[in-house]
Amino acid sequence: MANNFDIVVIGGGPGGYIAAIRAAQLGFNVACIDAWKNKAGKPSLGGTCLNVGCIPSKALLQSSENYAQLQHDFADHGITVDGAKMDVPKMIARKDKIVDKLTAGVSFLFKKNKVTSLLGTGRLLKHEGELWQVEVKDGDKVEVVSATRVIIATGSSPRQIPGITVDNVNILDNEGALSLASTPARLGVIGAGVIGLEMGSVWRRLGSEVTILEAMPTFLGAADEALAKEAAKLFAKQGIQIATGVKLGKVSNGKKGVSVEYTDAKGEAQKAEFDKLIVAVGRVPNTVGLGAEEVGLKLNERGQVEIDDHWTTNLPNVYAIGDVVRGPMLAHKAMDEGVALAETLAGQKGHINFDTIPWVIYTNPEIAWVGKTEQQLKAEGVEYKAGRSTFGANGRALGLGHADGFVKVLADAKTDRVLGVHIIGPFASEMVAEAVMAMEFSAASEDIARIVHAHPSLSEVFHEAALAVDKRALHG
């Protein structure tokens, strides 16, 4: 096998595998280095997202939501079932089957696009002449490949809390939380971010008593305040207990479970006992073992690879994308960076608009937003108008039995250009795409208001919110 490539990509997650495929489509001779293996010990491309992140979590969320609807919601439709049971091992097996199918799909795409797949971890060795020497290590097997250009797409790992050891038996990270053999009676979650809320939702629906402990004084601080307030209310209604402003103390892992001592927002000492504890306090970039210090690759104070606006590092012909660089740690952001960088290297005009990257939390109801929040606009002194419409008056939402939540549209007070859209409600993850499209094409709220939306559909709530910006909502 030839070991000299135009481009070597280190990391086979969403950013890495997409960068490799797009670069190959553009005529480059490409190799992608990735160390991930499945339970059978076979290569499993797709990184955290496909293996232990985005994809498996959504599979479990859907399974648990189906069970919850059967238990609580279907009776309203005239459907009653006695003796319904959840087979957790079968649910996990279904999740694993979906993961295997998609990771195998990436391998197929590599073969289709003639991308060479190299199993192992990648490390920058040295730059000789016009070529980079890159080590590929898989256990005792070591080989060196050369490349004109190197793309670092090594992703991120769960952030650890000093003094708390993740064993994925009682104290879990995202990987352990996705592979529980049974439903814990009492589940604790440290961190009320995306992972904490989604994993908490899965196991709450299956019968766990869920308590989420969040260090920040506010809930979902990155989201619009009105959206966060509505989410907190609905999660509390579902039985998920969320404590903010928490200061962690001693965490003890014993045979009978995990004991967590903490100080609450009022400064009062508390102690909670859990069967399982999920640690979900964010993620850190993967740069350990990359050879950064040896070759002089510049990292910032957060451990991210430093890049310019074109994903270029301080080293010649070395680039970086995805979770390992600045910006939101989102799979779709990494994918688009992979495409944009590959096209830039081919002499095209690769570009990403970071102002229109959507955020989604796949709870029930789903939460999604794009653009500025009200608090951001106020802080920046931007004059704006707001329009809001609820799902409670929407025929499609009522028919689905999911009528909680709302859509809020924020527009510039002078130009009417849409500055942000915030959604909490059914299929928010799908609805936000219209908002992204509108903002990418600099739409005004009036543009959205004058577009015909199908009736009955959930998208009508977005339409009504746009109408409400101009105080002419028709159904609210």
TrEMBL record:
Entry's localization field: Cytoplasm
GO CC term, one of those recorded: cytoplasm
Cofactor info, note text: Binds 1 FAD per subunit.
Entry keyword annotation includes Protein biosynthesis: no
Gene Ontology biological process: 2-oxoglutarate metabolic process
Residue ranges of domain Pyridine nucleotide-disulphide oxidoreductase dimerisation in the record: 357-466
The entry's keywords: Cytoplasm, Disulfide bond, FAD, Flavoprotein, NAD, Nucleotide-binding, Oxidoreductase, Redox-active center
Presence of the UniProt keyword Membrane in the record: no
Enzyme class: oxidoreductase
GO MF term list: dihydrolipoyl dehydrogenase (NADH) activity; flavin adenine dinucleotide binding
Residues where FAD binds: 58, 122, 154-156, 323, 329-332
Catalytic activity of the protein: N(6)-[(R)-dihydrolipoyl]-L-lysyl-[protein] + NAD(+) = N(6)-[(R)-lipoyl]-L-lysyl-[protein] + NADH + H(+)
Disulfide bonds: 49-54
Family annotation (Pfam families): Pyr_redox_2, Pyr_redox_dim
PROSITE patterns (UniProt xref): PYRIDINE_REDOX_1
Binding site for NAD(+): 191-198, 214, 282
SUPFAM superfamilies membership: FAD/NAD(P)-binding domain, FAD/NAD-linked reductases, dimerisation (C-terminal) domain
Residue intervals of the FAD/NAD(P)-binding domain: 5-338
EC number: 1.8.1.4
Gene3D superfamilies in the cross-refs: 3.30.390.30, FAD/NAD(P)-binding domain
Cofactor: FAD
Leftover remarks: The active site is a redox-active disulfide bond.
Family named by the database record: Belongs to the class-I pyridine nucleotide-disulfide oxidoreductase family.
Protein name from the UniProt record: Dihydrolipoyl dehydrogenase
Native organism: Leeia aquatica
